[in-house]
Amino acid sequence: MLTFSYAPFSLWLILPLAVSAFFVLLTHSSSPFKIGFAFGLGWFGAGISWVHVSIADFGGIPLAGSLTLMFLLCSYLALFPATFCWLLKRYMPVRNWLLAAPLLWFLIEWIRSWLFTGFPWLSLGYSQIDSPLAGWMPLIGETGVSALLIALSMSMALGVMRKNLTAPLIIAITTFVGGWVLSMQQWVSVSKQPISIAMVQGNIKQELRWAPEQQLPTMQKYQRMTDQHWHNHLIIWPEAAVPQLESTAESFLQNLDQKAAQADTGLITGIVNYNFNSRQAFNNLIVLGKRHIEDVEGHYSYLHANRYDKHHLLPFGEFVPFEDWLRKLGPIFDLPMSSFTRGNYLQANLIANGVSLAPAICFEIAFPRQIAANLTKDTDFIITVSNDAWFGGSHGPDQHLEIARARAKEFAVPVLRATNNGITAFIDHQGNIISRLPQFEAGVLSADISPTKGNTPYRLIGDGPLWLLTFAYVLFNLYRRFKPKTQT
């Protein structure tokens, strides 16, 4: 049921109702780990079923094998809610669950966000981007909204058990009305000088992206689609839009660099770079054309500094754990471009025609702490590029866009999302979609987007209050457990 709370369905009210029903079951369960594991299998099995498309259609794995891999992945992710349920029931009396549950959930989900490089997809708060609770995101972030949902759901569950819904109704009214009031708060100032930006969606089929005979036609297609849009202040191509290694595409890039400079613009494109000396590959974003507004010529040269190296690499898609023996097991472990080197966690913003952009490639947009760490006082936009062709017509790309909207809402910074085959979209600083291109169509999306200045509370302090509350709660419970008993 949780899947219907997320995009593209966005039935956000289902989530607190479903989770509260689950908590009612948990209170009566004698096997909390098992029921938590079953909950996790349903949550992730349906929610990230789109992963099966990439495994079955592009991984070269038979149906039985792909279903087995999906079961293993979902089983791993289901361990987190299972552990949550076991710890909650083992160490916390039910009367303390209203406070203990959201703090424990926050801690478990934090572990999920970094363990084995992290996979924080389907965090509960994303489902609320169109609900009144989204108003809390600039204050406590999506992680805080997830904790708030757990508290709300737990209060409903306890109210049903005690046959007294007064407290749950008060909590629900407070959280939803509070979110609605907060949504009217202007955390930042919006520039009165919008910037004209164009994003190109080439719609190159996944099976053709790395075919040698398709490299030149792909590059020519992107350049042809751009020809009518050089008047924009900034042009963006998606992840790995140039399907050649950077070292072998120098002449094409130099020509593009000159064209952009002559058109008085900057161009950002995704490209793969391979260092033949160190044998390291990088998933890059590079800037061509003008770097600063006052420039009169392009600034590109091979390995120039105005670039971004992807930090959060996708397991098996961009790096293979234990690759020496896993690659021998099947084509899924030997996909093209599946051996990248990790870039630094902190990197300089891209500068294109005087515009400062904090970059995120593909699923990096799901890591709010990384985004926050790379935002500066000069950042105008968050730019995220992706290739969701791996996931066909599934709900994966819609969830990906939903996550990008949450980042814009949290930090009050507009997000520019350029993709190969959808969903390319402009997102304003309040998380609203300004405009978008249809999936599976080649097109160019243009808009005048205003940057923002200022900070949201979440951008300044992140998850600090949640950590403070968690540590205080742990210390308080340790004190109560081990304090000397007074003798009467």
Question: How would you characterize the overall build of this protein?
Answer:
With 488 residues, the chain is α/β, with parallel strands linked by helices. The relative contact order is 0.12. Helix 4 (63-91) packs antiparallel against helix 5, helix 5 crosses helix 14 and helix 6 crosses helix 12 (396-411). It has helices spanning 14-28, 32-47, 51-58, 63-91, 97-112, 137-162, 166-183, 215-226, 250-262, 323-326, 368-374, 396-411, 457-461, 464-482, and strands at 189-190, 195-201, 234-236, 242-245, 266-275, 280-289, 307-309, 350-352, 355-361, 381-386, 415-419, 425-427, 433-436, 443-449, 452-453. The protein folds into 2 domains: 2-185, no CATH class; 191-455, Carbon-nitrogen hydrolase (Nitrilase/N-carbamoyl-D-aminoacid amidohydrolase), CATH 3.60.110. The protein has 14 helices and 15 strands. Strands 2, 3, 4, 5, 6, 7 and 14 form a 7-stranded mixed β-sheet that branches. A 6-stranded mixed β-sheet has the order 8-9-10-11-12-13, covered by helices on one side. A two-stranded antiparallel ribbon has the order 1-15.
